[in-house]
Amino acid sequence: MKKALIIVSALCMTLLCACGSSGKSSKLVMATNAAFPPYESVEGGKIVGIDAEIAQLIADDLGKELVIEDMAFDSIIAAVQSGKADIAMAGMTVTEDRKQNINFSTPYTEAAQVIVVKEGSTVASPDDLEGMTIGVQIGTTGDIYAEDIAGATIERYSKYFEAIQALLQDKIDAVIVDREPGKVFVSQNEELKMIDEEFTVEEYAIGVAKENTQLLDDINASLKKLQDSGKIDEIINKYIKAE
């Protein structure tokens, strides 16, 4: 009887492991913040954009179903660390601090932080932000780097859109935002402008949990195929027109 129980127990464990493994490996769960056009935004109830399309191609290459989970930007890394998501892809800049918590793929594009102000503002360079009130999206690199601006007051918002609204209402003096979303906001409102000098230059990559080294290797292999084939440039150029 004892032997039979052991066999049944072992069989159950095997089935459970097989089911769990199958369920996990059949999907690629992407954590993002879908308020970051043109990288990710919601259109017609669907998350679209550069990151969404690149992630779909990676999922296809890996034979997985892509599932995109929208959440607050500052929750994304924790979601990957806890296993609630497999990858972080949200215009995620590679930084030394973030590398302490997750691993990053090879970068798939270059980006920059820029400064958006109202027309008529005296801000012409990052140095002019000293002593001003600056809006940022919480958890972004703009949030991190704004801390180094002498005498500045930092106002943190859950979404860039909220910071832009505060700027339009004269509650703050400027917004530090990623370049491409910044262009979108400026194009949508004639009261806004982007200053010429970039605040920082950065690289975007895909975040993966520290222990998930096989997935990281698989993603890097997929990215190389997509880069070599020109697919990534094709997607980026679809959303970002050359100036």
Q: Quick recap of the structure?
A:
The chain is of the alpha/beta class. It has 9 helices and 14 strands.
Question: Which keywords apply here?
Answer:
243 residues, alpha/beta, D-Maltodextrin-Binding Protein, domain 2, 6-stranded mixed sheet, 9 helices, 14 strands, 41% helix, disordered N terminus
Number of helices: 9
Count of domains? 2
**Whole-number average pLDDT?**
90
What is the H/E string?
A: HEEEEHEHEHEEEHEHEHEEEHH
Low-confidence stretches: 1-23
Number of strands: 14
Rg computed from alpha carbons, rounded to a whole number of angstroms: 21 Å
Major sheet characteristics: 6 strands, mixed
CATH architecture heading of the largest domain: 3-Layer(aba) Sandwich
Q: What structural category arises from helix and sheet content?
A: alpha/beta
- In percent, how helical is the residue content? 40-55%
Question: How would you summarize the topology of this molecule?
Answer:
Layout: H1 2-25, E1 27-32, E2 35-36, E3 40-43, E4 46-48, H2 50-62, E5 65-70, H3 76-82, E6 87-88, H4 96-99, E7 102-104, E8 109-118, E9 133-137, H5 141-146, E10 153-157, H6 160-168, E11 174-178, H7 179-188, E12 192-194, E13 200-204, E14 207-209, H8 213-229, H9 231-239
Parallel strand pairs: 1-5, 1-6, 9-10, 9-11
Antiparallel strand pairs: 2-3, 3-4, 6-14, 7-14, 8-11, 8-12, 8-13
